[in-house]
Amino acid sequence: MREAPGAAAPITVGIVAGETSGDALAATLIAALRAKLPQVRFAGVAGPKMVAAGCEQWVSTERLAVRGVTEVVRHLPELVSIRRGLVRRFLGERVPLFVGVDAPDFNLGLERRLKARGVRTIHFVSPSVWAWRRGRVATIRRAVDRVLALFPFEPPVLEEAGIAVSYVGHPMAAHAASDWSRRTMRERLRLGLATPVFALLPGSRLSEIEMHAAIVIDAAKRMARARPDARFLVPLVSRATREAFERAIWREGAQDVPLTLLYGHANDALRAADVGLVASGTATLEAALARCPHVIFYRLSEITARLVRPRLEVPWIGLPNVLAGRFVVPELLQEEATGENLAIAALNLFDDTVARHAIEAVFASFARDLAVDTGALAADAVAHELAAAVPGA
Fold it and tell me: What is the signed CA dihedral for 293, 279, 157, 33, rounded to 10 degrees?
């Protein structure tokens, strides 16, 4: 297609996002940068939100959504093949800039290969070197030209290692819950204000559903026996995860438990709920910004857990606790993450109104601290690196 006279030549930026949270972050960046530089085209590994923002999808994010050592090993041949194919295609397209969104185990290797071939590289979402695997800082320095950090405590760690970093905040904070959110969401979901409502978030990846579904269903069964008026909201991000959870309901004999499965709408469920049971990850930040007191849980394969434990740098893994610098939210991990323990913890939190209100106040402070224009800040940082790669862009 012939360009209009005076139109800027199109520039392709490579991008890879590895799961649902990365898809949302990348979409925010894509929309903001294309508004700033309309000639920029994004292409790579994309999810539905990125596609809607204008990214060309070469590979779906779902193909990278694996977790843990044993799970990655099982999918390693496919992941290696995808990465090699992306390197060839990005170099063939002569992309001047690549943005890896989270998924550090996949993206850092890809970034290192591209940077060695003269492509400028950005990693969006700082790898959790403040929490574990601090030795990965050297890998980051070799692989990327700039990191876009979501949390204010991350830049000093990276800058000390000589890594260029831009603090961009978290886009979820811009839509944090207000004092009236629970009442409004209850009305929308047709739930009574006095009804005990629990949000169950077993994870966004299929492997997480397979590991956690039975646990949260068992917890719901126990809570329903203790509180027959309770209702349970279960947001699931895809057809595959929903179908897996539905199969688990039948396996666990929980057809009579008042579980309402939602297609997406995690934020709606969290805003409506009194208490949540939330698998560790970005969803715990979403729960905090929805002002939903919750219990964090997670299970990995035993092999993965043994490898992770010695490398932990902090006594907590949940983002709300990391942000607070102390235990605000209970964490039940590995063998402690049982249906019985989750039910007890959730019901104790529900019954302790004073504790819930104190937690909600802490969560409100997170929203104030993180509320910046993430899209604009990320777009400015990417535009700066693009100008270095393509003078005059």
Answer: -90
Distances (CA, A) of 63 to 70, 112, 141, 213, 253: 16, 21, 27, 21, 31
Same structural domain, 200 and 277: yes
- Token pair for residue 33? 């940068």
Q: Which helix (H) or strand (E) holds 383?
A: helix 374-389
How many other C-beta atoms lie within 10 A of the C-beta of residue 138?
11
> Do 73 and 41 share a domain, yes or no?
yes
CATH code for position 268: 3.40.50.2000
Write the DSSP assignment of 176-201 as a string of letters. Answer: ---TTHHHHHHHHHT--TTS-EEEEE
Cα 105 versus chain centre, distance: 15
- What pTM, to 2 d.p., does this model score? 0.75
10-residue mean pLDDT profile of the chain (393 residues): values are 54 92 92 94 95 95 65 70 94 96 92 96 84 72 95 88 92 75 88 95 92 97 97 93 96 96 92 96 92 94 63 73 90 94 98 95 89 92 94 71
Work out whether the CA dihedral 108, 111, 117, 118 comes out positive or negative. negative
How many angstroms separate the Cα of 118 from the Cα of each of 291, 354, 362, 390? 45, 56, 45, 12
CA gap 227, 220 in Å, rounded: 10
Range of the domain at 73: 11-169+372-389
Tokens of 217: 């269903």
